[in-house]
Predict the 3D structure of the following.
Amino acid sequence: MKKLTLSLIISASLFAASSHAADNQRTISYLTSWGAANMTPELIKKSEVDTLLLAFGSWDAQGNISGSDDMFNSDSGSYWKPMAYLNWTQAKFDNPNLKLMLAFGGEKGEGLWADLHNENNREQIAQGLVKLLKKDFPVYKKNGQYQQVGTIRLDGVDFDYEKQARLTEEENHNLLKLATRVRALLGANSGKLLSLTTYHVGADPVSCLDNLTAECSYNGKTDHSGEVLTLLKEGKSLFDFFNVMTYDAGPDFK
């Protein structure tokens, strides 16, 4: 799945009821690291997107968090800084109501889920995610040279949960354990958001693997049918919203 830049896709999503979210509608878009340099705060504001998923973040088994390209590069001197960093930090600073979340996974990031098999690694990753959500990111604006005008924080993380192969029940439970631990570390009133992005067919009946019926959301065979049912059911009060990947569906999506 190739994510499009903000200028190309603004997608509405359907949401699960959650004790962590009072609202039930959002306008969501990805802001990709390879497109962020051209996406100014003015364009972000004009788009009227209220939830922006920065794509993509990554972790290692020790819980070290990183972002792709120059999206998190703020230490590049006072006369030059990457626009990929300046644009999203300034957009949040100028519009505090904009929700900024870091998306993990995606088409090329499926190796992240293997790091969750080990309980110690899950703990390190959970600690790393919480540290990220509590981090103050400096905001710079230019007046001759770049000067810091304040700080902002991320509002949450998104798990862009997909693989080429079928996601397993073990992987579903490992992600549930990670999200549950992140919630516990953040505390009940943190205000931070957790979301789950995954294939629309993942919520189909498992029977769609073998027999296409009216309950199947796709008029074709796919290995992903019903693969995240457990995660959706057990995570309905854990995630603030589910972001449904219908834009991958093609013309046969019902």
Notes: Residues 6 and 31 are 5 Å apart (CA to CA). The mean pLDDT is 88. The longest strand covers residues 51-59.
